[in-house]
Amino acid sequence: MMNIALIYATKTGHSRKIAQAAAAALGVKALDLRTNPKLGDVDQLFVVGGIYGGVSAPELLEYVRGLEKGQVKRAAIMTSSVSQSARQTDLRAALLAKGIDVMEEEFKCRGAFLFIGMGRPNAKDLNSAAAFAAKHAQKAGSK
């Protein structure tokens, strides 16, 4: 049986909503980084976080950099950002530096800041997050 985990960091609550929707689809608990969750050996890790000022959440980067080599086999990144073109390049690099295979496809959800993106994530966004997680957990299990 495959060991799946989902961690998230949030400043506004958007990433928590995305993480909870994805975790429900996976049948796992969404682990808030503020609780400093301890991961065992993980086959598939879902990492949910926002991009703030063009950079991944610092606490998310710090957590990933603290993982042991070989602890996580594969990761999928799920992002909330006002900028729809932004990618979690620094997070991806941190995961790759740990020898973790990172899926090329990154889930992106429109974030909100002031009046931009108000009402996000909405029900459609959360359904999309759940579908992304379920699809990629199934792909990881077939490898």
What's the gyration radius in Å?
14 Å
Low-confidence residue ranges: none
List how many beta strands DSSP finds. 7
Give the proportion of residues in helices.
25-40%
Order of helices and strands: EHEEEHEHEEH
Number of contiguous helices: 4
Largest pleated sheet: 7 strands, mixed
Structural class computed from helices and strand pairing: alpha/beta
The coarse silhouette is globular
The average pLDDT value, as a whole number, equals: 86
Which percent range describes the beta-strand content?
A: 25-35%
Distance, first to last CA: 13 Å
What does this structure look like?
The protein has 143 residues and is of the alpha/beta class. Helices cover 34% and strands 26% of the residues. It contains 4 helices and 7 strands, in the order βαβββαβαββα. Strands 1, 2, 3, 4, 5, 6 and 7 form a 7-stranded mixed sheet that branches. Strand 1, helix 1 (14-26) and strand 2 (30-32) form a beta-alpha-beta unit.
Secondary structure elements and their pairing?
Blueprint: E1 4-8, H1 14-26, E2 30-32, E3 42-52, E4 55-56, H2 58-65, E5 72-81, H3 89-97, E6 101-102, E7 107-110, H4 123-141
Parallel strand pairs: 1-2, 1-3, 3-5, 5-6, 5-7
Antiparallel strand pairs: 3-4
Helix pairs in contact: 1-4, 2-3
List keywords for this structure.
alpha/beta, 7 strands, 4 helices, 7-stranded mixed sheet
